[in-house]
Amino acid sequence: MSKGNEKVKDNLKPDNVRQYNADSFNRLVLENQEKIYSLFRRMVTSHDEADDLTQETFIKVYKNLSKFRRESAPFTWIYRIAVNTGINYLRRQKARQYIRLDSADLKSGDDVIYDSELTNSLLQKAIKKISPKQQMVIILRSYQGLSFKEVAYIMDSTENAAKVNFSHALKNLKSVLENMGVSYEIM
Amino acid sequence: MKSCKDYEDLLPLYTSGDLSSTDHNKVSEHLKECKECRDYQLSLSAITAVMKRDSVEMTPGYGAELVVALNGRLDRRSTWQKRLLWTIPAFATAMAVVVITIISLIETEPAGNQWVAELNRERDYLNFTDTGYFGEIPVDDSDISNGDIDLSTDDLYRDAVYQIVENPQISEVDSYLLATANLDNEDFEKVIEQLKYEIL
User: Fold this and answer.
1) Best residue in B24, B47, B68 to probe A by mutation, most A CBs within 10 Å?
2) What domain range is A129 assigned to?
3) ipTM for the assembly
4) A77, B142, B151, B176: least surrounded by Cβ within 10 Å?
5) How many domains does chain B have?
6) What is the pLDDT of residues B102-118, one digit of tens each?
7) What band does B138 get if pLDDT is binned at 50, 70 and 90?
8) Does the beta-carbon distance from B47 to A187 stay under 8 Å?
9) Is B16 within 8 Å of A123 when comparing Cβ atoms?
């Protein structure tokens, strides 16, 4: 057997394959963790929640590495897993909120805006009040700066549907902010 | 001509810069004329401006921490999977032992009903006779000595006459007694008639 063949055979040993998978996985995590963490950080209130969701996403990425066909960029494929994870999480959270009948945020005096920092946090609150899918479109397009083509792939829809969804999401967000007593001049 | 409602649907995409140049120009023209739509568009601009300014603060070294945490979780998962893989054959072996024990208990229990007893007897018979399954079943001679063989009347006459006339080994009186022992009166008369004919 030639040296080249021996090298190929060595590379195919289970331990080497596992090591290769672990290395590629770690590289994928390092390259995409910032995007995925910031997506979740805008979606949820605390760092711990965002961290949990980020880990859950990458565990799913690891489990499904063999299914990745390389028909799209790895980051859009990871985004796709993250968005599904996020939407499921938001739906569970919403169900809990309905049970608690928590509407204390609406029209409360605490929502008066004085500076941009407060506006950011208020906007985060408002975003959490629109539907999970609309939240995702807003975050992906406006915060993460992805194109509608990428948003469409991640959300498993068409580009036009993504645009319509974004349009509705922005309008709903404006209504929610008005209900919270937001004045746009201050923003 | 488009109404304000139609433009309202286009305003979010106008604000984010995602309209075609034709649609963008149409909306711009409408905004010059319509204060209500202009206010609406300004509020959307304010929202998207805040979004663009907003950035998420990452803890320094978060990426490395995440990699460590993920590898730890995956290692624990793989340990559990290995443990589960060991559990499956162990469980299968235990089940096999239980099944074998149950079967052996059933086998050693004495036959509880007549049918099983019959079956066992037949099996034993086939196993222990020299003739085998398709051989002749041996005749029990004791049945003949008990007088259970069904002979015809003619056979009896012939036998009686033979005993009286031709058998030299027994006395004359004994031969009469033996010959007529199994006959009723009517048959006895017939034997006498036949004897007269044979002797005289």
Assistant:
1) B47
2) 105-187
3) 0.72
4) B142
5) 3
6) 888 776 655 456 666 67
7) very low
8) yes
9) no
